[in-house]
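A reminder from the course coordinator: this example appears on the midterm review sheet, so study it carefully.

Given structure:
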C-alpha cells in the first residue's frame, strides 16, 4: 500500500504539473506565431532582414521553452515525490499502527505532528488505542478478581462434599445449611457481577421520572424492616414529603437497600441506623448513619473499589461480595450525584443527588 499510494500521489502531482506546462507552452508558441504572421502580412514589402529576425526570434523562443519545459518537469518530479511522501507517510504509519493494534499490540501509538486533519485522525486513532488498552486491562484484572473470589469458596464446598461422600463428615442439617448459604452467596455474587457489567455497558440507561424521595425511602426500609427487627437494630428516617427528585425509582431504592443492608451487617445488636434527607441549594443530601463498627481511615478511599473488603480478618463466607458499594457508586454516578463515607461514632454515608426539579 505504501508504494502504491505514494506512487499514485506522485503521478497525480507530476501529471497535473506537466499538463499545465504543456498547455501554457502550446499557447505561447501558437500566440507568437499568430502575431508574427499578422505582422508579416501587414508589412509584406519588408526586406529579407525582417524574415531573418523572425527566424532567430522563433529559434530563441523555442529553445527557451524547451529549457524551461525540461527544468520545470525535473522540478515537478522532485516536488511531486517529496509532497507525495509527506502526504502518504502519516497514512502509512497509521495503517501500520492499526494493523499492530488488530494483532493485539495495544501499546503502540502514532506520532503526531501538526494540527491538520491527518494529525486529528492520528490523535483519534491514539485515543482509540488508549481506550482499547484500558478495556483490556480492566478485562484482565476483572477476570483475575473473579477467579480469585470464586476459588476459595468453591474449594471449600468441594472439600465439604468430598468429606460427605467419603463418610468422614456426617451431612447434618447445619452442615448442609452452611453449604447452601455458601452457594447462595456465590449466586448473589454472580447476580451482582451481572448487574455491574450491565451498568458498565453503553446500553445501560436509567428510567428517570419525578419521584417523591420519602416514598422511595419508605419502600427501601420496608424491604429490610424484618431483618432489622430480627437483629434488634433500630431503624429510623427523616425526610420532608415535599422533596422530589428526577430519578430512577428502582435504582434509588437499590442504593438505599444496599447501604441499609451494610449498616445492619456492621451494626451490633441494639444499635441504631438512621436515614436523613435535606434539601440543599441545587441538590438533595441523603445520609445513612449507623452506630456500628465504623470504617478504618485507611480503608475509606478504597471501599467503592470492586471486591474490596475492609475487614480482612472476616471470613468470606460470612461477609459480602465486596461489590455492594461498587454498584451503589455506579448508580449514584449515573444519576449525576456524588457519594462518600466518613467515620463518626459508626459510619456515615453521604449521597448528594442533583435536584433537577421538574
Ligand atoms: P461487602 O459485601 O463486603 O459488604 P461492600 O462493597 O458493600 O462489600 O462494602 C465494602 C467494605 O466497606 C466492606 O467490606 C466493609 O469493610 C466496609 N463497609 C461498608 N459499609 C459499612 C458500614 N456501614 N460499616 C462499616 N463498614 C462498612
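Designed residues:
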Amino acid at each position: 500500500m505504501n508504494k502504491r499510494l505514494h506512487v499514485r500521489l506522485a503521478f497525480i502531482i507530476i501529471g497535473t504539473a506537466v499538463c499545465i506546462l504543456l498547455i501554457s507552452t502550446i499557447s505561447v508558441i501558437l500566440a507568437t506565431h499568430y502575431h508574427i504572421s499578422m505582422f508579416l502580412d501587414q508589412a509584406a514589402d519588408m526586406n529579407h532582414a525582417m524574415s531573418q529576425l523572425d527566424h532567430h526570434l522563433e529559434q530563441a523562443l523555442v529553445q527557451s521553452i524547451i529549457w524551461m519545459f525540461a527544468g520545470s518537469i525535473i522540478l515537478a518530479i522532485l516536488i511531486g515525490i517529496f509532497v507525495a511522501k509527506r502526504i502518504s507517510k502519516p497514512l502509512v504509519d497509521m495503517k501500520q499502527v492499526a494493523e499492530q493494534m488488530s494483532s493485539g499490540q495495544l501499546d503502540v501509538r502514532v506520532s503526531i505532528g501538526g494540527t491538520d486533519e491527518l494529525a486529528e485522525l492520528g490523535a483519534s486513532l491514539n485515543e482509540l488505542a488508549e481506550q482499547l488498552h484500558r478495556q483490556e486491562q480492566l478485562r484482565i484484572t476483572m477476570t483475575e478478581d473473579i477467579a480469585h473470589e470464586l476459588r476459595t469458596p468453591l474449594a471449600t464446598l468441594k472439600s465439604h462434599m468430598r468429606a460427605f461422600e467419603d463418610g468422614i463428615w456426617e451431612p447434618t442439617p447445619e452442615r448442609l445449611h452452611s453449604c447452601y448459604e455458601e452457594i447462595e452467596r456465590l449466586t448473589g455474587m454472580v447476580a451482582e457481577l451481572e448487574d455491574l457489567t450491565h451498568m458498565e455497558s453503553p446500553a445501560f440507561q436509567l428510567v428517570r421520572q419525578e419521584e417523591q424521595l420519602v416514598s422511595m425511602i419508605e419502600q427501601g426500609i420496608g424491604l429490610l424492616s424484618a431483618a432489622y427487627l430480627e437483629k434488634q437494630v433500630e431503624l429510623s428516617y427523616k425526610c420532608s414529603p415535599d422533596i422530589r427528585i428526577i430519578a430512577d425509582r428502582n435504582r434509588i431504592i437499590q442504593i438505599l437497600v444496599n447501604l441499609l443492608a451494610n449498616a445492619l451487617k456492621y451494626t451490633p445488636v441494639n444499635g441504631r441506623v438512621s436515614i436523613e434527607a435535606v434539601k440543599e441549594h441545587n441538590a438533595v443530601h441523603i445520609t445513612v448513619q449507623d452506630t456500628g463498627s465504623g470504617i478504618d481511615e485507611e480503608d475509606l478511599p478504597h471501599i467503592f473499589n470492586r471486591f474490596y473488603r475492609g475487614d480482612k480478618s472476616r471470613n468470606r463466607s460470612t461477609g459480602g461480595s465486596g461489590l455492594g458499594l461498587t454498584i451503589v457508586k455506579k448508580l449514584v454516578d449515573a444519576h449525576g450525584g456524588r457519594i462518600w463515607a466518613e467515620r463518626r461514632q459508626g459510619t456515615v454515608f453521604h449521597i448528594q443527588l442533583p435536584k433537577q426539579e421538574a
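Residues 262-263, 266, 290, 292-295, 303, 308-311, 319-326, 347 surround adenosine-5'-diphosphate (CB under 6 Å). The chain has a mean pLDDT of 86.
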